[in-house]
Automatic annotation (TrEMBL):
Keywords: Amino-acid biosynthesis, Aromatic amino acid biosynthesis, Cobalt, Cytoplasm, Lyase, Membrane, Metal-binding, NAD, Nucleotide-binding, Transmembrane, Transmembrane helix, Zinc
Official protein name in the record: 3-dehydroquinate synthase
Residues annotated as binding NAD(+): T130, S131, K143, K152, T170, L171, Q172, T173
Bilayer-spanning residue ranges: 268-291
Domain 3-dehydroquinate synthase C-terminal: from-to ranges: 182-325
Sequence positions that bind Zn(2+): E185, H248, H265
Length: 364
């Protein structure tokens, strides 16, 4: 049997399984499953994977299995769609002894996690992430949310899943652009938390891009272990988890300026990591060599490294002032002090931020 990675939280430790053909293994589900199960997914993902999952759930002992298919896209990660899930569950008389399964990317994971946390004050949720981003990041850690109008993830709560099952077979149908965007978060872990991961990515990026089974498995296992460890130490995102926002200050600004349409999250994170690294260099924390290595790795991965053409300093600064992660008017930056080591900093001089943004392509 595949050995799990554990998220070791007091009283609610849960396993993460990473590997191939996991959706076909009833034994992985057995001890985490109620007899009543509802799987929430998107039509195109369900077409590929729900029939197999349904069979497996039957073999694992589930007796009432339904699926609810919702449209893809973050525009649907809303209270209205949470309500659709609640109505579906209620109309079919699902009670508290129900397992809700999220089969999809981070959007479905967040929406199902949130809906499951609220329905009858909390159902058991199993995350079956099918995008690289969700496997290495979103599905682990119990952060659930929906968007409110233009505010991303404004309404949410912490609700840890009973299990995360990352079947790497599902990545075979993931569109290439989505796959590459997911790589940005993996590279991020290397930069801020694990020099060995960064070095390994430098030497294996071609295999990962080709989705070679062994390399892909190693990458997802490694990243899941990192996320599991950090979540276990800081469940409610009070201190340690803050470093995971490396590259995100600028990323959130870029995503928002382009109305979450032009850039995928990972693409914006890539640009944001370069800015944060340039600030780290300007503050004398790192050498230029480290910045060059990050640029080289992101470029090989096919991720953007320059700010979008035509983006203005004013627009970026207006957005970062709004970002919820700054405290008392100060922008909180996650900076790098050595490969695999990050620090939080609030007093980065504004002229320095201007210079770095201008040098990266922002116009006045
Ligand atoms: N909870 C957290 O800690 C956390 C962390 C990071 C991101 N997020 C959230 O995750 C979401 C982004 O996740 P995402 O990048 O997975 O996006 P997503 O869920 O929107 O999926 C991206 C696209 O890929 C498709 N897709 C997913 N898996 C597929 C597969 N195996 N085959 C074919 N198509 C597939 C989806 O249908 C969708 O069109 C955002 O809502 C973000 O806020 C949450
Ligand atoms: Zn992110």
């Amino acid at each position: 049997m595949t050995e799990p990675i554990w998220v070791n939280m007091p009283a609610k430790a849960y396993p993460i399984f990473v590997g191939y053909d996991l959706l076909a293994q009833p034994n992985l589900f057995q001890s985490h499953l109620h007899k009543a199960v509802c799987v929430v997914s998107h039509p195109e993902i369900a077409a590929s994977y729900f029939p197999l999952l349904e069979q497996t759930l039957q073999k694992a002992g589930a007796r009432k299995i339904t699926s609810l298919l919702l449209p893809a896209g973050d525009a649907h990660k809303t209270l209205a769609f949470a309500e659709k899930i609640w109505s579906f569950l209620s109309n079919l008389h699902y009670h508290r002894d129900t397992t809700l399964i999220a089969l999809g990317g981070g959007m479905i994971g967040d929406l199902v996690g949130y809906s499951g946390a609220c329905y009858m004050r909390g159902l058991d949720v199993i995350q079956c992430p099918t995008s690289l981003l969700a496997q290495v990041d979103a599905a682990i850690g119990g952060k659930t949310a929906v968007n409110l109008q233009n505010s991303k993830n404004l309404i949410g709560l912490f609700h840890q899943p009973r299990m995360v099952l990352s079947d790497l077979n599902t990545l075979q149908t993931l569109p290439n652009r989505e796959f590459i965007a997911g790589l940005a978060e993996l590279i991020k872990y290397g930069v801020i938390l694990d020099a060995a991961l960064f070095e390994w990515l430098e030497t294996h990026i071609v295999e990962i891009l080709a989705r070679k089974p062994q390399a892909l498995e190693r990458a997802v296992v490694w990243a899941s272990q990192i996320k599991a460890d950090i979540v276990a130490k800081d469940e409610k995102d009070q201190n340690l988890r803050a470093v995971l926002n490396f590259g995100h200050t600028i990323a959130h600004a870029i995503e928002s300026i382009y109305h979450y349409e032009k850039y995928l999250h990972g693409e914006a994170v890539a640009m944001g990591m370069i800015i944060a690294m340039q600030l780290s260099l300007a503050l004398g924390l790192i050498s230029a060599n480290l910045l060059d290595r990050l640029i080289a790795l992101l470029t090989k991965a096919g991720l953007p490294i320059f700010l979008p053409d035509g983006i203005t300093l004013e627009a970026i600064l207006a957005k970062i002032q709004l970002d919820k992660k700054h405290s008392q008017g100060q922008i909180r930056w996650v900076l790098v002090e050595a490969l695999g080591q990050a620090q939080l900093r609030e007093n980065v001089p504004l002229p320095m931020i201007y210079d770095v943004l201008k040098a990266s392509g922002a116009s006045m």
